[in-house]
Specification:
Order of helices and strands of chain D: EEEHHHHHHHHHHHEEEHHHH
Strand order of the largest sheet of chain G: 5-3-2-6
Helix content of chain D: 40-55%
Chains: A mainly alpha (about 170), B alpha/beta (about 160), C mainly alpha (about 325), D mainly alpha (about 375), E alpha/beta (about 150), F mainly alpha (about 160), G alpha+beta (about 180)
CATH class of one domain in chain G: Alpha Beta
Largest sheet of chain G: 4 strands, antiparallel
CATH class of chain D: Mainly Alpha
Number of helices of chain D: 15
Structural class of chain D: mainly alpha
Shape of chain G: elongated
Strand content of chain G: 15-25%
Radius of gyration of chain G: 27 Å
Number of domains of chain D: 1
Number of helices of chain G: 4
Oligomer: heteroheptamer
CATH superfamily of chain D: Cytochrome-c3 Hydrogenase, chain B
CATH topology of chain D: Cytochrome-c3 Hydrogenase, chain B
Strand content of chain D: 5-15%
Number of strands of chain G: 6
Chain lengths: ~170, ~160, ~325, ~375, ~150, ~160, ~180
Amino acid sequence: MSGFFTLANLSFLLILTVTFGGALIAVAGRNIFHNVLGLALSLFGVAGLYLYLNSPFLAMMQILIYVGAICIAICFAIMLSEPLYLPRPPRKPAKLAAAGLGAGLVYFMLSMLVKKTDWVAAPVRGTDWSIATIGHYLLTRYALIFELISLILLVAMLGAIVNARAGRGSAES
Amino acid sequence: MEKKTGEPLIHLAVLEEVLNLCRANSLWPMTFGLACCAIEMMAAGAARFDLDRFGAGVFRPSARQSDLMIVAGTISKKMAPAVERLYDQMPAPKWVIAMGNCAISGGPFMYEGQYAIVPGADLIIPVDVYVPGCPPRPEGLIEGILQLEEKITNRPRLRKFR
Amino acid sequence: MQFLLAEGARIGISLIGVIGLVSINALFLIWMERKVSAHIQLRPGPMEVGFHGALQTIADALKLIGKELITPEDADKLIYLLAPIVMFLPVLVSFIVIPFSPTLLIRDLNVGILLIFAFSTMAVLAILMAGWSSNNKYSLLGAIRSVAQTIAYEIPLLITAMSVIIMVGSLKLTDIVAYQATVWNVLFQPLAFILFIICGTAETNRAPFDIPEAESELVAGFHTEYSGMRFAIFFLAEYTNMFIVSAVATVLFLGGWRGPILPPLVWFLLKVYAIIFLMMWFRWTFPRLRFDQLITLGWKILIPLSLANLILTALAIKIF
Amino acid sequence: MMLEKGIEEKTFYLNLGPQHPATHGVLRVVLEMDGEFIANSEPIIGYGHRAHEKMAELRTYQQYLPNMGRVDYLHALAYNQCYCMAVEKLTGIQVPERAEFIRVITSELNRISSHLLWFGAYLLDLGAFTPFLYCFDDREHILDLLDRITGSRLTYCFYRFGGVPVDVDEEFIAGTRAFISRLRSRWNDYDTLVTKNVIFINRTRDVGIMTPEQALKYGVTGPNLRGSGIPYDIRKSEPFSVYPLFDFEIPLGERGDVLDRYVVRLQEMEQSLRIIEQALDKLPEGPIMAEKVPKRLKPPEGEVYTAVETARGEFGIYLVSKGDVKPYRLKLRVPCFSNLSVMPELFQDVMVADAVAILGSLDLVIPDIDR
Amino acid sequence: MTSPIIIPSLEAILGADKLTELDYAATGCHVRAEAVPEQMPAVAAAMLEQKFYLASLTALDLVESLELVYHFASFYQLCRLVVHAPLAKGAAAPTISHVYPGADWFEREVFEMFGITFAGHPNLKNLILPEDADFHPLLKDFVASS
Amino acid sequence: MLDKGGEACYIVNEVFHNAQSPAWMEVQVEIYSVLTDYGYVLIFLIVGALFALGPLILAHFVAPRSFGPTRSEIYECGIATYGSAWVQVSVIYYLFALIFLAFDVDVIFLFPVLLAFGEGYMWRDFIEIVLFIGIISLVIVYAWCRGVFEWKRKPESR
Amino acid sequence: MTAFIKDTLIGFWSLLAGLGVTIRYFVKPIVTVQYPREKLTMSPRYRGHTEFIIDPETGSHLCNACENCARTCPSNVISVTGVKVAGTKKKRAVTYVLDYSLCSLCGLCVEVCPTKALKFSDEYRLAGFSRQDMIIDVIARLQAQQRALGLPEEVPPVPEAEEAKTEETKGGEGES
């Protein structure tokens, strides 16, 4: 139980497996519903990563919002889009290649970012990021951002509602 | 009627006995009434008679979750395929009580020239217990369920009271 | 190594305890449900299996183990098989943070209450999986309704919990109990308590909010196609969720394990089962709401009320 | 008709029944669903068809008597009465007054039991389980009373041509009076538990509105019709038996929605109690059976149409005799048949939950429709 | 008790000699009318105008011919009308389901039980019998096959 | 207790010397302690899955089989199904999910804020929170006005 | 707005009132007759299947196998065979068998019986494992009752050799 195979590392590996496995299902599955569930699994793994960053609050948020809310929204979006019993269109190699290229590009840029960042080990980082502190900052230093969040959400929702209502009407007329 | 049930993968006499004892005491009927007898079936589940005392009061609307099909009423020829299908869709082990004379033999509707009914539930599905009457009293149905319990466990059930 | 052993033993013991509690709780609750419903309806309920039907649920459970598991041919089999397991996954986790007594607590996490809420959302996903994969229209309708209902009631549930948290200033359940050393929160927050019970009832899909499994409309809702043990696991999860919601309500509003004379654990369980009794009492009294009314109630009445309650609480804290 | 259309549209088809808790029997309704809403619906009946009309042609008049208890098993005595009245009209048998009183008392008790069962089963549809058991508790008392004199609990075959075979005794009268006061004491509980319940009101108010025009075009009768505000009750408008001797009202609804139909039925039970009370008070002495009823009935050639008001509406028998011991043709005009045929109109654009509420409010007995 | 209003409107359609008053106490009906099936849509329309409802629609198998029997009654007054419309075997009768939507099912029932087709009916198929049933059980010469 | 077992564990005690941060912010950051905490969660999740799986496997072995031509068909009240159940659902559910999402995000921001609430200035925090809740409530007000919560079948969607 | 709040409060109160009703019933005693342990007293006129009345004078039944019941029965439930008893002109039932699974309990057979030999039993515990269990031998039942009462058991008359035409009537369509 020493060296690389500490419990911490093992669980980290597990979390990575879950994340990547979920991501793989999300990308490779032929059934769109499986893809969403893979995504949920992947997001669940990401929540584990947050734990490694010593941020249980964010991890819980991840589960609550991403697994709980966003996946549900996506599911509804899927059910809304087209009947699932229709046959799926076949995968085109060109499309696949393009998607791979795009993903590779994003990956490359992110990895560059990772390399450039000056990482500080959490214990040395010093600043306390407990929930209360986040809250404190939200109320003081980032008060404007705090209010803006709600405003942005409001605008997004209004847009969604307007779109949904208008979309329905115009599609029928 | 060979489409009954098959054996489980593991077959242990003791285990079977325990399971049978549990099955007998937890017969969940399907919410399924065909005609007049269904009302008496409801009455048997209601406060005066209370099938739930024997663990048989959990009426499940889905065939997938029920153990017992109480064929309460006349099976018409139009209904027969549905009855068969519902029976098929029940998970094993499953039992059937033919409640009332119509379900047993067509009852008063069985005569020369009848074109509409199936004369007896046992012609389309295997019936375990027959409860005669037109309609049977709720006590009759309870009696039928007790008989079925006896059939499942091979043990007398509340014999001293009956 | 010692540390690992110690933690391992702790985990093992707590797991055994939790699993025991979950099983016994479910067995007891189902028996209790049948007895409560029976006595409300002037009948005795289970009587013949054990003393006053005490062994009834055990018979039911064993019978369900001995039932065939049917997988519909047209179903999405993988998801169909996974759904009950996913449904049950989060159930045990919530018990990690519930303080049964000052000493009987598995782990006092500092995001305590959030953990319970976060993991309870997984059940929504499981319901959606179950309903969708069955390829049964009743299941699908039930699942969609269930999800729409859960998301409509999750918000007020969280917000009412917040109005307690704003008073306590901590997400830890132990802190919340400690805060109620003298007076229970329900006296400060009667409205929040009522809202929490309503939303909790809705979250656990209990009547009058049992629309997803509304018998008279959707046969058995999202678990129409599930037979035997698979169905039982949904049931088990439902009854355990009832326990969890009641436990959270107890911690938030009824002072957790606090109470005179009796030991803390007894007090805790008493309060929990009192709330569960309340839920059962609702179920056997009210007709079912229509789906749109339910949604409307959630969005139009409960959320504004809970928000107002939150603001009032904040105001009160500022003033006093 | 519906199923023959393609499925490429946004809608999908859902079978409600024949084994479904909300259809109270073996009715099947095919719903074309647009999401939660019903775009179209088509009831498919016949799953309980037992060929009653064919049987009539193969049985003698007496032998057909037990059938009447099984067409609409919930209000069997009204059917029984209608059939007896039809044959009595055809043969000119005069029924003694005491027998008519007994018929009215038992038939009204039966009506109450039918309404009570409906009440319970309807609340079951709406998701309230408990009222169902309270109603059955009350109903058991009626069944005890009827069992006492008719000898069966449900499918009564009690009235005979020319009267009733069994006289009522003091115990029955006392029991009936006790039952009347018992049921009256329960109204308050039912009101508090159900009628005033805000959830119940919201589920039923303005749902499934049936206009008088619809009722007229589909021939809807009974409480469903009276819920729409038309005071048509055969007991009043076409008085048969000894109903003219009693003072009772016809409860009416205003909007024709589900709640109105519910309230009408609830009030009708009270009116039935009034009728029974008066009948018990006025119960004359005398024979209970007409003299000289031939053992083998051979009515003269002719045809007759007789209608009675059952718990569900107008039940009519159109009886054609060719002077034989068996009827030549016997047509049962059953109320539920017409009451159900209006259903697709009421189902238009409502949600499944409302559909269940509407279907339940029509108070259907499926073997009655299918015969 | 006979309603005075229905008589003229029916006489206009059918002719005066086709209407007979019946003894209500013995037959349960006030007026009996004879019609040919082709007149029935007009009769039905007239009856609907008088706010009569269709109580029942059935047929009689008179062995050599058939007869359609319509019963009308009113919600507002005590008046029952029976209309007999004789029909040759194999002939079709016009539908009245566009006048009385409630007649739709009655006609379907008569169709399957007696084999009488109704011209213009939107959905003439078996109602009560199984969809593939091709026998007409209420005909006198019907013998059950099983 | 944690470092007894030889597992590495860093504990950092630090007091903020920032003027805005009062002394209460002195906290302990225990990285591996967090992992132990959530190790519980992980193990409970796994055991939960096993606990659900166990009876299913047991049932597979002890339950008898049934045979019947329609045994594994979709159950629909005893009638063969017509068409698949995987159909389109109404847009309204998607809207609900979106509104829920917005509120969920909001709620998540409210949690830390409420924890910090009561320590800062008297009215500023309160007004900020009221503003925040007020703005987000507009979503409901707007949705209410636009009839999102009205459930009527639109005639044009026929 | 006030109306809305008022409605909400009234609605809330109605729910509480409903809860009040159910809790009142919760503490009421149960009405259940716990069937096999306790039994309902059957109504005196309860119609079970038919059985023979035991004539207090002879301790036997009164059936003279006239087959009126079998003819009247709508569902062909009854099969009676009788023989002329030696010495008398009267016929007497040898077998009297009901196929109870066809019966509709209408009671016509009891009404037409010229000798008033039939009555209804209050038997309802008839559940069985096969259709054949529903066939009831009324004479055997009578014998059992006689045994229970300590009466001499019914001995079916032996048909005289020359009159042994045991005609079995499966009661016709009403026409004989």
